[in-house]
Amino acid sequence: MQNITVKAEQFFELLKLKDTSMWEIFAQMIDGNEKEIIFLDNEDTILFNYILPSTPEKLEEDRKEFSRQFADKLAQFN
Fold first, then answer.
1. How far out from the chain centre does Cα 25 lie?
2. What is the DSSP letter of 52?
3. Would you say the pTM of this structure is higher than 0.90?
4. CA 20 to 30 Å from 69, out of 22, 46, 49, 50?
């Protein structure tokens, strides 16, 4: 499995500038092999990681699950 490290702040700033979603970027990275994307803060501390699946179908399942969990978390704050 290939490991890819990403500075989280720069990554999300780039998404904002390009007006695109992380899921679109992840979809472009799919090549049939799983990859571990490791998000780092500015001090190179691991914030979180994501295992990029090998298929677009699995990526879509992940996106839906993420959206559901995110909505659940938001509902807890209201």
1. 9
2. E
3. no
4. 46
Q: pLDDT tens-digit profile of 18-64?
A: 999 999 999 999 999 999 999 999 999 999 999 999 999 999 999 99
Q: What number of CA atoms fall less than 13 Å from residue 25's CA on the CB side? A: 12
Residues paired with residue 4 on neighbouring β-strands, in sequence order: 37
The CA distance from 14 to 12, in Å, is 5
Q: How many CB atoms lie within 10 A of CB 52?
A: 21
Q: How many residues does the chain have?
A: 78
72 vs 21: CA distance, rounded Å: 20
Residue 78, pLDDT score: 65
Domains of the chain, by residue range, sit at 2-77
Beta bridge partners of 35: 2, 52
How far apart (Å, rounded) are the C-alpha atoms in residues 26 and 34?
11
